[in-house]
Amino acid sequence: MPVDDDVTYTLLGLLIAEDFGPDFTTEDVGKAWVKYLPYACTAEDVALRNLKAGIPWDKAGEVDNPYCQWIGADIRSDPWGYMAPGYPEKAAEMAYRDAYISHRRNGIYGEMFFSAAIAAAFEADDAVDALKTGLTEIPRDCLLAKDIRWALEAGRGIRNHKEARKAVEERFGAMSGVHTNLNACLTIFGLMIGGDDFTRVIGETVAMGYDNDCTAATAGSIAGAVLGISRIPGHWYESFNNKVMTYMNGHPEFKIDDVLERFACQAENILTR
Fold first, then answer.
1. Phi and psi at residue 130, in whole multiples of 5°?
2. Banded model confidence at residue 2, pLDDT cuts 50, 70, 90
3. pLDDT at 273
């Protein structure tokens, strides 16, 4: 798997849990970022620069940060869901502590929502059930919760990526294409359109546009957790030769099977405490 920031943050989450334990603090997250990340983008870049400039961890995400509600925290949701399968409350709790280093308000809620949904997906019958569980882990009256409820209702009548894109354009207008909220709705639409067809979930979500590498990756995490490896076509994972590349300091390459074992160890640690 080539270098990609979304996948790198999934692996960084694993390192945070291994270095500090599942009760890591946001201050620990900041220490890990300074240790492992040579650079970042948008909200993460602002937070990393602030940390390196000596700004305290609890202020790093809000000083001169116009990106604090963008999708950057949302794409960091995967590790917490993987570490707490069937335990969405814990996944959301870890997501909050991670997200706070760089995001605020709906930016934080996006990571909490999808972390909880991924965790729930391991025991859910379908993706919609997992999404509804994820919704219980963010403030009911926040803007993201309202948008998610809209998407779950509107998605029942949306048949393809073109209709999904049009619905989002009409609801969100000129909102930034990398904002948490509109992209969360696209992820929901992709999961609802694709159902138990993993390939269609990914294809339809990518075709919707906006921040589609992130939306499709999150959709893939949820669909994958619901379906299990036996129902995912082999071409989605066999060609990566058991390797993931990153740009993290000291960790240029991971073995996929090793990563799976390490996430399983973290999950066992959390679920048996």
1. -65, -40
2. confident
3. 83
Q: Please give the structure tokens belonging to residue 28.
A: 């620990």
Please say whether the beta carbons of 135 and 113 come within 8 A. yes
pLDDT band, residue 1 (cuts 50/70/90): confident
Q: Is residue 41 scored above 90 in pLDDT?
A: yes
Return the closest-CA partner of residue 116 out of 151, 78, 155. Answer: 78
Tokens of 128: 């919609």
Residue 139 Ramachandran class (φ > 0 left, ψ -120 to 50 alpha, else beta): beta
Question: For the chain, how many residues are written?
Answer: 273
Q: What's the CA gap between 109 and 99, in Å, rounded?
A: 8
CATH class of 5-271: mainly alpha
Distance CA 159, CA 180 (A): 23
d(CA 158, CA 161): 8
The pTM is what? 0.97
CA distance 202 to 214: 11
Kindly provide the residue ranges of all beta strands, DSSP E only, lying in the chain, ordered along the sequence.
243-248, 251-255
By three-state DSSP, how is residue 247 classified?
strand
Sign of the Cα pseudo-torsion (66, 39, 215, 114, in order): negative
Contacts of 33 (CB under 8 A, 6+ apart): 12, 40, 44, 47, 48, 51, 101
Q: Whole-angstrom Cα distance, residue 237 to residue 260?
A: 13
Indicate the pLDDT class of residue 222, thresholds 50, 70 and 90. very high
From the number of C-beta atoms within 10 Å of its C-beta (0-12, 13-18, 19+), residue 256 rates as middle
Return phi, psi of residue 242, to 5°: 60, 30
CB atoms within 10 A of CB 210: 21
* Residue % of the chain over a pLDDT of 70: 100
In contact, 62 and 30? CB cutoff 8 Å = no
